[in-house]
Amino acid sequence: MNHGERVRSVTTLTRTIAHSEQSTYLEVPFEMPENVEELHVSYVVESHGEPKAVIDLGVRDAARVRGWSGGARSEFTIGREKATPGYLPGELTPGNWAVLHNAYKIPEAGCTVTVTVECVYHTPRWLKGDLHMHSVHSDGKFTLEENAAIMEELGCDFTAMTDHNAVSQNYAYPRNTSIVMIPGTEFTTNFGHSNFLGVADPIKDFRVKGQEDVNAKLAEARQNGAKIVLNHPHCDFCPWEWDFNVDHDWVEIWNGPFTARNERALQWWHDQLVSGRRLVAIGGSDTHRPDPYVKHAMPCTWVYASAKTVDGILDGIGQGHVLITYAPDGPFVDLSCGSYMVGDGVPAGELAREVRLQADDLKAGDRVKLLSSSGVEQDVEVTEDGALTLRCNAAGKRFVRAEVWRQFEAAGKMLLATVTNPIYFD
Question: Domain Polymerase/histidinol phosphatase N-terminal, which positions (predicted)?
Fold first, then answer.
């Protein structure tokens, strides 16, 4: 299901090139609009006679040449963080741009070049990915390229390679992928793990002796701009045994397959919400190697992001615009209260208090729950595959959030299939 169409504009430009222009560089100018996230250019050459025309391709912005592929490519893409090889990613500054051509070989009768310029605008939309994964840069078996290719095949948008106490992966990310590679490292101690997201080199030394050292490392990561996640806090083997009052942004309530450790984390998080905390919940597969149960993007974290960039995704998480599904194709839940969505706080003066749940990709037998600071508001069994709409009055509630539970035959029981972050009420 599509959870956010991208807005785009397409301009077609035609340039006739005469034989007299052979061996010259030509420009096909166009205006770069405001608020563009991605530029895609393609061209087609129609020769008017023999020999066949040969036209090279490149582009300039208002300040410099941004890329050149000669005759090697018939199209290219430039984004904020990634671009086709031969082209420079970065800001797509509004103003006068031009597609560049080298009229390398032109027949006597000339040729016609048709250029298509497609601008994709910054469009807030749901993106999905995995915020906890390992590679050969620590104890994982997958290369960075293999991880990116698997995530692409799953239709995901982003991943964070959080290798244990390592940062080399952040300097070796593959560029020729559509996956946004979020810089990350898993701060791994003998008494708990924490992910640092968003910066390539958050701390200089991971070794700690006690709580004071842990506090200092978290402070260093914070100073360097990292977002801090408490990982699998109620795991059987490596729980968070340091002080829970340490500086952190988010908590990983769902790590790998949904088992008792995740159920404990889910209940702990709910208790935090009831106490009045507004704590963003995320998930991650913690994939290390090929495994029948621990797989990429299982669970899958969905983020309503302003742009498909590192900053856009992390900002969306910071706003709590997050839900988690057991897999990339798990049931999607849209929770809203008027114009407010998951993670938002509805102001005290807002009269509307009706929360609307729209769930898609459900299966017969699923259980859809609406929970609040007062407990379970609704618990509905799905009778047929498809979609479901629920509503509840949130008057007097601190928050409302949603869960979907599903019978998984491999486990022989009902397990969590989807969980949303709450909508809060002031």
Answer: 129-191
| Whether the model pTM is above 0.85 | yes
Nearest-angstrom CA–CA distance, 150 and 72:
27
Residue 19 has phi, psi (to 5 degrees) of -60, -30
pLDDT in tens, 349-381: 887 789 999 999 999 999 999 999 999 999 999
Residue 64 amino acid letter: R
Q: State the Cα torsion 269-274-279-282 to the nearest 10°.
A: 40
CA distances from 413 to 74, 291, 327, 407, 408 (A): 53, 21, 17, 5, 6
Given a cut of 50, is residue 286 above it in pLDDT? yes
Q: Domains of the chain: which residue ranges?
A: 8-121, 125-425
Per cent of the chain over pLDDT 90 is: 96
Q: Looking at residue 210, what is its pLDDT? A: 98
What is the pLDDT of the chain when averaged over all its residues?
Answer: 97
Query: 129-160: per-residue pLDDT in tens?
Result: 999 999 999 999 999 999 999 999 999 999 99
Q: What CATH number should be reported for the domain whose range is 125-425?
A: 3.20.20.140
Q: Contact 82/175 with Cβ under 8 angstroms?
A: yes
How far are the Cα atoms of 69, 171, 186 from residue 200, in angstroms, in the given order?
30, 7, 12
> What is the distance between the alpha carbons of residues 216 and 228, in angstroms, rounded to a whole number?
13
SS3 344: coil
What's the rounded Cα separation, in Å, for the pair 133 and 151?
Answer: 11
- DSSP structure string for 285-318: --B-S--SSS-TTSSEEEEEESSSSHHHHHHHHH
DSSP annotation of 220 reads H
pLDDT value for 4: 61
How would residue 3 be classed by pLDDT, with cut points 50, 70 and 90? low
164 within 8 A of 136, measured Cβ to Cβ? no
State the CATH architecture for 8-121: Sandwich (2.60)
| Cα atoms found within 13 Å of the Cα of residue 107, Cβ hemisphere only | 14
Distances (CA, A) of 400 to 3, 192, 237, 337: 21, 30, 32, 10
Distances (CA, A) of 86 to 22, 89, 148, 218, 241: 24, 10, 21, 39, 48
Do residues 206 and 194 lie in contact, with contact meaning Cβ atoms separated by under 8 Å? no
Q: How far, in Å, CA of 80 to CA of 305, rounded?
A: 14
